[in-house]
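Dear support,

Our group has been running a series of protein-ligand predictions, and this particular one with magnesium ion is the one our PI (initials K.S.) wants archived with full inputs and outputs. We had some confusion internally about which version of the output was final, so please treat the block below as the authoritative record. The input we submitted was:
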Amino acid sequence: MIELRTPAEIERMRAAGVFVASVLEATAQASAVGVNLLTLDKLAHDMIRKAGAESCYIDYHPSFGASPFGKVLCTSVNDAALHGLPHDYRLRDGDVLSLDFAASVDGWVTDSAITIIVGTPRDEDLALIDVTSRALDAGIAAATVGNRIGDISAAIGDVARAGGYSINTDFGGHGVGRTMHGDPHIPNDGRPGRGLPLRAGLVFAIEPWFMIGTDRIYTDKDGWTLRSADGSRAAHFEHTVAVTDDGPVILSARS
Ligand code: MG
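Confirmed final output from the archive:
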């Protein structure tokens, strides 16, 4: 079901977005060589408690998950593309780390993700991050009244292809509101002019993720972490965006 949010509701979602952005900033800043992924998860958990927010991940148990997620932050390192389950791993120089975080504040959810490089970057990782980040920008720019979902999907796919990456459409953007996942689904590739017409009040997460060498993934034996089939590195960027008469508004914008 597609739900439209009032301007007042969108303002309340923005409050959740400010919190989510602050957690991503803090965990990204804390990500350094030698830092354990479990320490990053604990940092996010402490911030949730302090803010009186609620994690969207800790009890999350969809059909594709082996068990409830049990952590509050997704930490996907190198060949891990999505849903990286924090575990006892210390970050190493040159690691590509995607941080994905969603929380509910006063009953409204925001979802966002960033990818960073820990320590010394490799050129091919910088290129991947640049393209994935620009794909998010292009998708957001297409989230305007009068466009359709397919325009967002096509904008994302075009940037990926121009960057030389193939696209896995198994996981993509989604409606966000009282819960983390709702309609509409927003694939990371598609045809312009197709799909749901965008109206003011639609709120959804747009989340391109690409891998350097493949569009195929497999599930790690932890039951959650999705890894690239060929071991190549992945990047993932996500914002929660409101469609308004004044254009797209990024609710999870970082300062
Ligand atoms: Mg997310």
